[in-house]
Write a structure and sequence with these properties.
Number of helices: 8
Radius of gyration: 16 Å
Largest sheet: 7 strands, parallel
Order of helices and strands: EHEHEEHEHEHEEHEHHE
Strand order of the largest sheet: 1-10-9-6-2-3-5
Number of domains: 1
Distance between the termini: 28 Å
Structural class: alpha/beta
CATH class: Alpha Beta
CATH topology: Rossmann fold
CATH architecture: 3-Layer(aba) Sandwich
Amino acid sequence: MTATLTTFPLLSFPSRPAAEEALAETLEAGVRDAHAQGRRARIALSGGSSPEPAYRAFAAKDLDWSKVDIALVDDRWVDVDQAGSNQAMIERAFASATGVTIFGMKLPTASPKQAEAELDDVYRALRPFDAVVLGMGPDAHTASWFPASPDLAACLDPQSPATVLGVDASLAPVAAPYPERMTVTLPVVSEAQQILILLFGADKKQILQQALEAPVTNAPIKAVIEATGARCVALWAE
């Protein structure tokens, strides 16, 4: 499938708070649907500074948080008490969501590669996710799928049996100063019921447009869009 901004759902909002609330409401609806089906809701979230207000708005929703599992899409290989930890941001954003279960990626092992097997078991038990929230970097990466990474092909393999992979991001300038990462693979994202991409600024909109016309190896975000079709929606505001 070839995606364009005319076929790929890109929802524009008048302000960032409006886009953040829309994301929160969409996630809330997904949780309520899961609970109505008599099961736990399972959501995978990306880090970074942009989505934290949206996560706080989501955490403020009146939900049975004891039946919600939140996992990370990816994280830097740093402890939760160190700068750069996506897990720390998620825990901070969901401090008001009493009873929620948060699954981190950083394990007490020397490297992400050494943690793959143990973390794969954890994420395999959580699949499939009701919703996955992604961002996009200035190099059109998403999750920890960097164009310059030697692990990119393995991350984007649609037939990969791996749920998570340790990533060497040392050749990706935007990943500095955190060259070691852990990330979910494309099959984990592509099987989710809904994929939401949160984007802010005219530059990100332009990068997305260019990504849709670029090879996947140069613009990993395109792999998600092509694999998921209408289940993938971008929420954008200036």
